[in-house]
Structure formats: structure tokens, C-alpha cells
Amino acid sequence: MTPSVSSVGTEHNEYAHLVPLQRRYAELAENDPERQALREQLISGYLPVAEHIARRFAGRGEPIEDLVQVATVGLINAIDRFEPIRGSDFFSFAVPTITGEVRRYFRDHGWSTRVPRRLKDLHIAIRGTLAELSQQLGRAPRPSEIADRLGLPISEVIEGLQAGEAYRSSSLDEMLGSGDGKATLGEFIGGLDNELALIDDRATLRPLLAELAPREQKIIELRFFRQLTQTQIAEQVGISQMHVSRVLRQTLAVLQERMAGRD
Amino acid sequence: MTYVDKDYSSSNGGAPPQGTFHAGVALSLELRAAASTVVIPTIRTVAADLAARADFDLDSIDDLRMAVDDLCAMLVRIAAAGATLRCRFTVSPERIEVAADIEVEDPTEPLSTRTFGWRVLECLADDVRAMSLPGAVGERDRFCITVAKDAATAPQL
Fold first, then answer.
1. Percent of chain A with pLDDT over 70
2. Mutation target among B46, B58, B126, B153 for the A interface, most CBs of A within 10 A
3. Tens of pLDDT along B75-98?
């Protein structure tokens, strides 16, 4: 079923029956056995919304099935996080959340600027060597080591790495809040305290760190308070070094921006 | 942005192949620009490119890029009106040094080194220093941050 545009806009009577379920879901305690069933009902009920949004991103080089899957993740996040206070509308919360998830997927898997095909392929080839080389070397590889592995001149590898900068260029509207971190908070908060005592702006910094998603917190902590390299963090957190780099940059930018705002 | 080519040409005497640096050849490069955040992406890209051509590992390249980004942002924030940001890179196979400075109104403690931003800088680079540079007669004082990044400092797991 393909919903019309209006079904996602102001007129969404076909979803009216879900509104009371939503309220009930938000009220239930975290461990209430009824929650799971309600959640599934809500997800399948709102699924056409996710499909609708996914379709709007079709034709950009990513398979529609993947986009629907990503949009569905966004929908689930929206359902879990929505707080139905009086007068607020689920759609005005869910649509940006789902759209944000799909955009983020494009940033992770797509190319945000036009990069020549050759460089794109090159960058993909380089990325393909990173995990294995890092494993063998116990550190991030050098351009010369990547060049050896691929049988290419170093200058080409450098070009390919630069193409990667376009690939992972980030945007200010990146949603940082919805981290899917597996790390638990308690694990490292204690470690932070000692180190932070040395820092003047801890009063500003601490609440800002607390606002970050657990995964972002974890990565900041490992890098700047435990001095691990990006490659080591990638191993611990279970994402790629490039992803670690991206998270670090965005999180630092967000922290610094917010810190400046609270001076 | 003015591009001041210091000794770049001398490294071409031996014609480094493939746009990379010869071992043992140090080179330096200086960038000057009006103090504005607009030029920071260009400066950090230069930093990363120099590190890649010096065959630093990818973590170190990325660390240097972020460090240069941060230190330029710190300097631009304390810049006097109409100031010029100078950024000088000295590259050898073992180490890249970046010395950046900017004109400031008040050179006494223009920047705290007990901040999170400074902490980040210290983690990203191997040697970080801040200093005031008294201006010559008729010139404003400058504030300088230098960072150095060593090749392959990644601690082994």
C-alpha cells in the first residue's frame, strides 16, 4: 500500500486508531509485558509512513529495500522516544526522525558530493583493506602500506583518501542524539570524573557529555580520557575507524558549539 | 588566502616520485589568511595532505587534521579585529610541526589551557604549547599555538 502525501501531512485519519495505543505505550513501565505487543502493533500500523519516506529517497543509488529498512529503524526510534504530551502530534515528531535516519544512512553509505567514479571506486578499495591491515599491524595503516596491498602508487591512495573526505563530509543537521551504542553509561562515568576534575569547564562539559548518546560518550571518553587511537576505539566499539573519526568530529563540534553557547 | 611557498621548491631538486616526500627531506610551508573560520577547512585539509604525503598512518593523519582544526578555531576566537592567521607547517618524515599565530588585543592569558578544548588538543598531538609573542614596535602582539605530531605514535595494544 502506498499512502498518499496527505496521509503523512495534516490529514492522517487512517492512523487515528493508533493514537490511543501510542498514549498507552508511553505510559507503560519499561518492563510491562503489554509493551512489546503494543510496540509491534504501533510499528506495523505506522509502517506505511516509513515506506512513504523511504520512497522519497529512491533513485539515489541505494536499493529501496535498504531504505525502507533504515526508515523503519527511524520509525521505531520515533515510537520509542515520542512523548505524547497534550497537543503534540506524532507525525511532526516521527517524520523528521525517520527522515533524519535515512539522511544519516546516506551520509554513512552514500556520497554527499559528486566524486568521480574512479575515485569512488578507489576509496571503496581502500576501505576494503583497512580492517585487515589494521588487524595485522596493530595500528592504522599508512598510505604506503595501503598502496602496497592494492598494488597502486601512493599518490593514488592519497587521492582516494581525499575523496573519502567528500564521502564523509558531515552536515550540521546530523542527528547526534539517536546513538545505537551498546556501551553502558555506568562503565565509564567514574573514569571521567577523576580526569575532568582537572578541567576548568567541567561544570559546562559534564552536562553536555551527559546529553550525548551513550556511544558518542563512550567514544569521546576512550579517545580523550583514555587516549586510545581511533583504530583501537573502532575495535572496542565495533565500528570502522572511519566511523569513529566521523563521530569524533561531529561530537567535538557539537560539544564546542554548545559549550560556547553556555559560557 | 596568501600562499607562501617556503622551501617547497628545494624538495623538488630530487623530484620526489608520485607526489610524496623523500625520506630525510624536511620542508616547510606557510599559509596566511584573514582570521576567519571560513579558511579553517582549507588549512586542515593542507595539514592532512601533508601528513598523508609524509606517510603518517591514518589515525595520525586524522588526529593532525582535527588538531589543526581546533587550534585554528581557538586562535580565530581570540583574534583582534582585522587579524591575520598565520600557519606554518614543518614536515619531516618523523614529525610534523604546526605553528599558528594570530594578532591579539591583550596578550596576557588570552586563552586558558585548562579547558576541554585544550585537553582535546593535547590528546590529538604529541606536543602542544601556547605562548605570547610580543609584537615589534607599531605591531600588535601575537599569540601562538604550536603542535607537533610524530609519525606512528599509536601505542600498541
1. 72
2. B58
3. 998 999 999 999 999 998 889 999
Dist. CA A231–CA A241, nearest whole Å:
5
Question: B35: closest CA among B74, B6, B4?
Answer: B74
- Could you give the CA distance from residue B91 to residue B97 in angstroms, rounded to a whole number? 6
pLDDT at B89 (0 to 100): 97
DSSP single-letter state for residue A5: G
Rounded to whole angstroms, what are the CA distances from A18 to A12, A62, A212, B115? 11, 31, 31, 49
CA distance B151 to B143: 27
B42-B45-B47 Cα angle (round to 5):
115
Neighbours of B78 (CB within 10 A): 17
Report the number of secondary-structure helices (H) and strands (E) in chain B: 3, 6
* B59 vs A: CB within 8 A: yes
Instruction: Search chain B and give the residue with CA nearest A139.
Output: B154
Residues 6+ apart with CB under 8 A from A179: A212, A213, A214, A215, A216
CB < 8 Å to B61, chain A: 161
